[in-house]
Amino acid sequence: MKDITAEVSASNKEAFADPSVYEDNLFASLLFKPKDEADPVVGIPAHNEEKTIASVVLKARRHVNDVIVVDDGSSDETAQLAQEAGAKVIRHDDNKGYGASLRTLIHYARDNNRGPLVLLDGDGQHPVHEIPSLLQEVLLGEADMAIGSRFLHEEDKDDVPIYRRFGIKFLTRLSANRIVIKDSKGEVKKLTDGQSGFRAFSRKALEEVNPKEMGMGASAEILMEAKDANLNIQEVPISVSYEGDTSSENPIKHGLGVIGSIIRYTETKHSLLSFGVPGLIAFLLGIYMGIRTVLIYNDLGYWPVGHVFATVLLFFGGMAAGMTGLILHAIINAHRRGYD
Q1: Which pTM was predicted?
Q2: For the chain, what is the HEC assignment?
């Protein structure tokens, strides 16, 4: 077996050597457990993160007793290092994706009656020392889901590269446009960072979210599920580090994955809105175009090809879309009743 401490990066070595690593690891349970019977746990999805995983695990253990790492088919020493650092490691045989790792962590917490669950990345990008800030929102009952936002403080915004800033804001608007949050003063605000992977979930939230997406789109899917379940969502300001080798995910691939997730979720969860309403509009436009086409034929004595084509396309396309919406709606409702 390899000498673990000799193989880790500089940040990992520093964490292993820190004598205060356990100094406040009972923060949440000691402070809030009498009221909430909380059993907080940190979950870390990881794929080939041997450079940073031990450091992240050890720092997380300052705030909670248990850290769970999902090794998503890593080809390096991620699992071994995480285990040596004190984490419980759940292994995927192959690389299933970020969303699959989140689902494994959520199911683990739910099945073992654990919670709150704090999710953070294994690449060292998230500020582990700010775990208590997210936990506090959940444990005090202020939120069912707390999200660490990179955009609540002006000084933190500048730490985010411009291209990331633009992409995050665009994807947040797509996935969280209907989500509003109330701050401590009761003021209503829109979500600022829907793509943050630094999140805390109450036990109630863990029962409501169940991502199906295998890739990065799971983050957006969870937000939409939380909105549909009327969960109380709050944001907490966090700092973030983009120094060194952090996210390995191609930003374009990431963005397309999130957009695809939003489309698939809307298609299945809101089928009548996605298919039925556009289908009805197209169907009515088809009738209108059909009437116009007949009138033109009566006046001019020939069938206008463009109008005929548009009539057929709108009429039958709208009918097909409407039927698709109704069928999907019926299937989804039947599936839901099967679990009631």
Answers
A1: 0.68
A2: CCCHHHHCCHHHHHHHCCCCCCCCCCHHHHHHHHHHCCECEEEEEECCCCCCHHHHHHHHCCCCCEEEEEEECCCCCHHHHHHHCCCEEEEECCCCCHHHHHHHHHHHHHHCCCECEEECCCCCCCCHHHHHHHHHHHHCCCCCEEEEECCCCHHHHCCCCHHHHHHHHHHHHHHHCCCEEECCCCCEEECCCCCCCCEEECHHHHHHCCCCCCCCCHHHHHHHHHHHCCCCEEEEECCCCCCCCCCCCCHHHHHHHHHHHHHHHHHHHCHHHHHHHHHHHHHHHHHHHHHHHHHHHHHHCCCCHHHHHHHHHHHHHHHHHHHHHHHHHHHHHHHHHHHC
